[in-house]
Amino acid sequence: MNDAGAVNERRTVNDRLAQARAWLRQDPDAETRDELAGIITRAAAGDAAAAADLDDRFGARLAFGTAGLRGALGPGSNRMNRVLVAQAAAGFAAYLRQRTAGAPTVVIGYDGRRNSRRFAQDSAELFAGAGLRAILLPRLLPTPVLAFAVRHLGADAGVMVTASHNPPDDNGYKVYLGGADGGSQIVAPADAEIAAHIARVAEQGDVGLLPRSEAYETAGEEVVEAYIAATAGLAPAPFGVQEMRWVYTAMHGVGWQTFSRVLKAAGYPAPRVVDEQSDPDPSFRTVSFPNPEEPGAMDLAFARARTADAEFVLANDPDADRLAVAIPDAGADGGWRRLTGNEVGLLLGWRAARTAAEAGDASTASLACSLVSSPGLGAIAERYGLAFHETLTGFKWISRAPDMVFGFEEALGYLVNPGTVRDKDGISAAMAMLSLAAEARVRGATIADLLDELGAEIGHFASGQVSIRVDDLSVISGTMASLRAQHPTAFGARAVASAEDLAVPADDAVPTGDVLRYRLADGSRVIVRPSGTEPKLKVYIDARADSADEASAAVTELEAAARELLAERR
């Protein structure tokens, strides 16, 4: 390194040391203060690894977007901690005061992750200190209860402290808006406006000078009881299902205590619970990654199901906003197969469409899903006379679909009760799935039989996904640019009939985003887009055929062709 480079490097280290020392002075958390003090000492003594660590922690800050905040716990502006949460709460309070006449009401919930309760209490004190009416939920609860509470209490906003199914050392800050937004997650331009308020708070300095108050309210159990009643009312147990054998896991999260009460209220038989995973545990000690989609995450549930000779398995993720379903399958390893999010979404959409049609409401109702989810939902809507909407990914968009009675995305998210919860809800989705399984059982059928019956009615749909993880994000942008410059004419032996670049606005019916969609001559569909949360390029594949085997075979072929194409374009 030349002299100029060494001077610049030292200047960067000194800048980071100054930032870190200023952060240390305002940090109210003894644990993160001690951690940061050690890094500062080592970096000041010339430790290159410590200096790089400081640069990672203070060279950027966690961006506040439509998903709020989410990141690893630890000191620094690029981590989740009490300083960052205080800045976020004060900035959000300023945004709410600006947009709301009178004193805004905000309700705060939290799950069982590390620091969730502390972040929620800090937020409640800061909201109250800023002159808002702050209502803290009574204990750790599922994310859907918070989403419900925003509407139930007529609040102007809601905050849920959770990182959902992220790794154990993460936490997050998820924001909802009431009023005209109906209790949905925020969308643009609200995210940028809130971020600007947060930036102003951060520029003002010490969060210890922000006004706090303990004059916040703690909600009573009646809020939880109202959610339980509304959710149980979705799908009361039919007669004759008391012998139904099934397994449930909360994946070390907060779902079981609430879900068990919903089950009892609706009259369903209690499941065989995976005891090792039934109580909240921020270390998620029995899984390497607390996400039902991850390999191995449901192994304990499958073992319990084999012992109990269960008919099916239901699993929530740690904050219970997602649902996974598994069924016996002699051809699968261990004899059990987790259904894809698309399979579950189509079954629940079928249930919603039939319910609307039977009630005479089909002409004024709609189904909705993200544009990367199965087009089978559109076929269901057409079959039963409902409208159909495709949206960008995320329930912040799905929840806003007009006249929606059901919405889903392939990543195990389902919105089955839009009148009370305008977000994905793994507990109400579990109730809807129990209703389907129970009704089938009464006539001697299974969930696998339901999939066959749906396929016979609308055609057999299968889906697959290819994910390419990269170390250099420029690989993703370069690949997308290559595909835009020269659209593929085929995926393997299957010709491309049309190519759509959703970054180019077409009409109001087509969402815009960094997405390429290819419709193939045989009716299959291939979608390519960058992941919104990980350094991945993702390909979503959907096929429709006269049989399930033919559809699955088409997906397998297209997955191989997509991998080959992306390898050529990287």
UniProtKB/TrEMBL annotation:
<keyword id="KW-0479">Metal-binding</keyword>
<feature type="domain" description="Alpha-D-phosphohexomutase alpha/beta/alpha">
    <location>
        <begin position="227"/>
        <end position="326"/>
    </location>
</feature>
<dbReference type="InterPro" id="IPR005844">
    <property type="entry name" value="A-D-PHexomutase_a/b/a-I"/>
</dbReference>
<dbReference type="InterPro" id="IPR016055">
    <property type="entry name" value="A-D-PHexomutase_a/b/a-I/II/III"/>
</dbReference>
<dbReference type="InterPro" id="IPR016066">
    <property type="entry name" value="A-D-PHexomutase_CS"/>
</dbReference>
<dbReference type="Pfam" id="PF02879">
    <property type="entry name" value="PGM_PMM_II"/>
</dbReference>
<dbReference type="Pfam" id="PF00408">
    <property type="entry name" value="PGM_PMM_IV"/>
</dbReference>
<dbReference type="InterPro" id="IPR036900">
    <property type="entry name" value="A-D-PHexomutase_C_sf"/>
</dbReference>
<feature type="domain" description="Alpha-D-phosphohexomutase alpha/beta/alpha">
    <location>
        <begin position="62"/>
        <end position="203"/>
    </location>
</feature>
<dbReference type="Pfam" id="PF02878">
    <property type="entry name" value="PGM_PMM_I"/>
</dbReference>
<keyword id="KW-0460">Magnesium</keyword>
<dbReference type="Pfam" id="PF02880">
    <property type="entry name" value="PGM_PMM_III"/>
</dbReference>
<dbReference type="InterPro" id="IPR005846">
    <property type="entry name" value="A-D-PHexomutase_a/b/a-III"/>
</dbReference>
<comment type="similarity">
    <text>Belongs to the phosphohexose mutase family.</text>
</comment>
<dbReference type="InterPro" id="IPR005841">
    <property type="entry name" value="Alpha-D-phosphohexomutase_SF"/>
</dbReference>
<dbReference type="GO" id="GO:0016853">
    <property type="term" value="F:isomerase activity"/>
</dbReference>
<dbReference type="InterPro" id="IPR005843">
    <property type="entry name" value="A-D-PHexomutase_C"/>
</dbReference>
<protein>
    <submittedName>
        <fullName>Phospho-sugar mutase</fullName>
        <ecNumber>5.4.2.-</ecNumber>
    </submittedName>
</protein>
<keyword id="KW-0597">Phosphoprotein</keyword>
<dbReference type="InterPro" id="IPR005845">
    <property type="entry name" value="A-D-PHexomutase_a/b/a-II"/>
</dbReference>
<feature type="domain" description="Alpha-D-phosphohexomutase alpha/beta/alpha">
    <location>
        <begin position="341"/>
        <end position="453"/>
    </location>
</feature>
<keyword id="KW-0413">Isomerase</keyword>
<feature type="domain" description="Alpha-D-phosphohexomutase C-terminal">
    <location>
        <begin position="504"/>
        <end position="553"/>
    </location>
</feature>
